[in-house]
Design goal:
Blueprint (H helix, E strand, L loop, with lengths): L3 H16 L3 H13 L1 H24 L1 H6 L2 H24 L15 H13 L2 H10 L11 H31 L6 H23 L4
């Protein structure tokens, strides 16, 4: 299995990557800022659920097959961009109500969890990222490569939970006062919509 040095090194790398601006942690930040800590938590869990599937795909060799298919990449890219555009549309149209402002997320925990999974699985870059990152920390002489890949995936998920959990806590705390104002809430919704729309365009223009 993995050595202590490899485990700690990979965790540190994963933690740093978790705080590096990207579609997933930006989505967590915006959902936490606009809908509160609970929304950020469940979308984080959903994103990590997607990482579980990516880890298994890499460990079983399925990701390599997918990476070789230009058609699969294009389909996922379109699906991902379309879904992000849908989230932008929802943010732009989100109602503002003093009775519910900041009290609970606009969607149910299950919907937020599902949103996180869909966002992660429809981002084709995650496949290439895992294919490039995980094998670098595998040591064939230390046992099953498949088990090592699974262990690395779990470590990455743990680091993601720590990083995204921190982002959730501070973004929700920072925006708590803003959500008491209808004008501020409307501004947050439009800002979130703009972020999602920008991510949709960015993903649509992504090349392999």
């Amino acid at each position: 299995m993995l050595s202590i040095h490899t485990t700690l090194t990979f965790f540190a790398v994963s933690l740093a990557l978790g705080f590096t601006p990207g579609p997933d942690n930006i989505a967590v930040l915006m959902q936490s800022a606009t809908h509160g800590r609970k929304a950020g938590l469940f979308i984080t869990l959903g994103l990590c659920g997607g990482l579980v599937i990516h880890t298994l795909a890499v460990a079983l060799g399925l990701a390599a097959v997918f990476a070789a298919s230009a058609t699969a990449f294009a389909v996922l890219k379109v699906l991902g961009a379309t879904y992000l555009a849908y989230l932008a549309w929802g943010a732009f149209r989100a109602p503002v109500s003093h009775a519910t402002m900041g009290a609970r997320p606009a969607a149910s925990p299950f919907q937020m969890f599902t949103r996180g999974i869909v966002m992660n699985l429809t981002n084709p870059k995650v496949v290439f990222f895992f294919l490039a990152l995980l094998p670098q920390f595998v040591q064939a002489e230390r046992g099953s490569v498949t088990l090592q890949l699974c262990a690395l995936g779990l470590i990455f998920i743990l680091a993601t939970l720590v990083a995204f959990g921190t982002i959730t806590y501070f973004s929700a705390t920072f925006s708590a006062g803003l959500r008491q104002s209808a004008r501020a809430q409307r501004g947050l919704n439009y800002f979130a919509g703009s972020i999602f729309l920008g991510l949709a365009v960015r993903l649509a223009l992504t090349e392999r």
